Amino acid sequence: MKTKLITRRGYQQLQRELDHLWRTERPEVTKKVAWAASLGDRSENADYQYNKKRLREIDRRVRYLRKRLEDLQVVDYSPQQEGKVFFGAYVEVEDEQGEVLRFQIVGPDEIYNSKTVISIDAPMARALLKKQVDDEAWVSTPTGRKLWYINDIHYRSDDS
C-alpha cells in the first residue's frame, strides 16, 4: 500500500498532468480517432488502431489521477519540523566511505523522472525519520545493513 502523502508541489504537478490530459491531449486524440474512423475499414487502419489505443491509455491515466488526487493528503512545511527529518525534508547523508547523497523525502507519486527525491516508503527514508544532524541511521539494503550519517536537514529548496 502506497503512502497517501504528497508535497504541495507534487500535488500541483499531478493536477497539471490531469488537466493537460483531459483538456488538451484527449480532445486531440479523439479528433484523430474520428478522422481515422471516417476513412472506412478500421481493422487495417494504423492511425485508428494507434489513436484508439492512446485514447484508452489517456482514459486509464485520467481515472487513476482523479481517484488518486482525491485520496492524497498534501503535507505542507511546519516550523515544528525544523532540525529533524520528516516528510518533505531535504537531507544530505554520508556513508563511512565518504559517499554523499542529497535528496528530498516525498510521496511515492512524486519519485518518477527525478533522481533528487526518494519515497517516504523507501528504507532510507524510514531509517532517517525523526533523526537530527550528526545522528546515525542504519539502512537495510539488498547487500546488507549500511550506516549513514546525517550532515544536513532543511525544508527550503535551493531554488525557492
From TrEMBL:
Keyword terms of this UniProt record: DNA-binding, Elongation factor, Protein biosynthesis, Transcription, Transcription regulation
PROSITE patterns: GREAB_1 (PS00829)
Pfam families associated with the record: GreA_GreB, GreA_GreB_N
GO MF assignments: DNA binding; RNA polymerase binding; translation elongation factor activity
Cross-referenced InterPro entries: GreA/GreB_C_sf, TF_GreA/GreB_CS, Tscrpt_elong_fac_GreA/B, Tscrpt_elong_fac_GreA/B_C, Tscrpt_elong_fac_GreA/B_fam, Tscrpt_elong_fac_GreA/B_N, Tscrpt_elong_fac_GreA/B_N_sf, Tscrpt_elong_fac_GreB
Family: Belongs to the GreA/GreB family. GreB subfamily.
Name this protein carries in UniProt: Transcription elongation factor GreB
Organism of derivation: Pseudoalteromonas ruthenica
Source taxonomy: Bacteria, Pseudomonadati, Pseudomonadota, Gammaproteobacteria, Alteromonadales
